[in-house]
Amino acid sequence: MLRLCALLTVLALAIAACGGGGGSSSSSSSSSSAQSTSTGSAQSASAQGKQTFTSNCGGCHTLADAGTNGQVGPNLDDLRPAKAVVVRQVNNGGGQMPSFKGKLSDAQINAVATYVSSAAGKSS
Q1: Structure pTM?
Q2: Residue 1 within a domain
Q3: What is the pLDDT of residues 40-96, one digit of tens each?
Q4: Burial (CB count <10 Å: 0-12, 13-18, 19+), residue 117
Q5: Can you give the residue range of the structural domain that contains 81?
Q6: Residue 10: closest CA among 79, 69, 63
Q7: What domain count does the chain have?
Q8: SS3 56
C-alpha cells in the first residue's frame, strides 16, 4: 500500500512537472460567438499544452495522445491524473522528477496540466 501511494505521488509530481494550474471561468449566458471564441481558445491551449508536454515531459512519460513512450516517469495513460495533480507535480517535482516552476511559465504549466488531464487514457 505504501509503495502504491509513493508511486501515485511520484506520478502526480511528474505530471505536474509537465503542466500547470490556474483557473478558468465560464458563463452559461455566453453568446454563440463567445462560445466559438472559447472553443478556439481551448483548442489553442490544448495545442500549446501538447507541444509543451512533448518538448519537456515526453522523454520521461508515456502518453499515447502525444506519441511519447518515456520510461523514467509514470505512464500517464495508466495514471490518468487530475489537472490539479499535474499542476502540483509540475510545480513541485518529486522523486526523480524535477520542478518546472520557473522553467515553464504559469500559462505553460496550466496548458500542459489541462492537456495531460484531458488526454491521459484516451489513445488517439
Answers
A1: 0.67
A2: no
A3: 666 777 899 999 999 999 999 999 999 999 999 999 999 999 999 999 999 999 999
A4: buried
A5: 13-18+35-119
A6: 79
A7: 1
A8: helix
What pLDDT score does 81 carry?
97
Q: Is 2 contained in some domain?
A: no
Q: What is the mean pLDDT of residues 21-39?
A: 43
The residue count of the chain comes to 124
b/e string for 25-40 if b means 16 or more Cβ within 10 A?
Answer: eeeeeeeeeeeeeeee
63 bridge partner residues: 68
Contact 11, 90 (CB under 8 A): no
Q: Which residues contact 74 (CB under 8 A, 6 or more apart)?
A: 7, 10, 11, 14, 15, 61
pLDDT value at position 56? 95
